[in-house]
Task: structure prediction
Amino acid sequence: MTAILSEARIYDDLAEFYQLWRDACLGRKASESDEVKFLLEVFASSKSVKSVIDLGGGTGVHAIPLAKHGFDVTILDKSPNAISIARRNFSEIKTVQSSFETMVLTRSFDASICMLSSFTYILDEPGRKHFYRWLSDHTRDLLVLDQGNFSRYPKTFNDRFQGEDKHFSLKVARDWYIEDRTKHTSFLYEFVDKASEAAKVLADEQVQRYVTIEELVAYLGKGWRLVALLGDYNLKHIFDEQSSPRMICVFKRVRD
Result:
């Protein structure tokens, strides 16, 4: 028998399935090792980076490998489920449960990273101002802000994906439309437990507002300089609006 549950969030309610979901939707493009290697190369450009906060770090896809490389890493995420999984996978990882719009963490970090378009889920202007003000005030050296290159996304899109791991198979139906840099996405997931053959069909709705380079510069203020604009997780991939899959901004604090 198939059970249907609405409004199940892959980043929260379904966090235990995040890796399966990512592999199903992105396939070979879901290369966490390449993303971590990229971050290590960015940090190598500044000898001062020892502490890092991974904003929207979820289950620790990037934070845990960085911690294993010797960085003092903290995950900030609003999902208690995702944070619990991160701790289970690596007990030494530091975590803070908070949304971007309400974060009040007083500690500062050498570098702040926000990967995989996480900051695009901030939909209201007061929330965006709060988030970027926190970044500016509590980051000592480097910022890495990663989002998809929304300029090359089609205005409407629908596709179907599938994947599996040892315990579950997953089929994903994804549909979106974009209006005024805001992407509205509907997901339908069908999970099948391989052992029991029980199936669940779950719905997920996501809304993202993409942020232009000019907006990022304005939000962060005069204390920051854009030192790299990249189109993928590779320091040699200079951003091209027409062809790059990502839009990754690396900012460095301006010293007086």
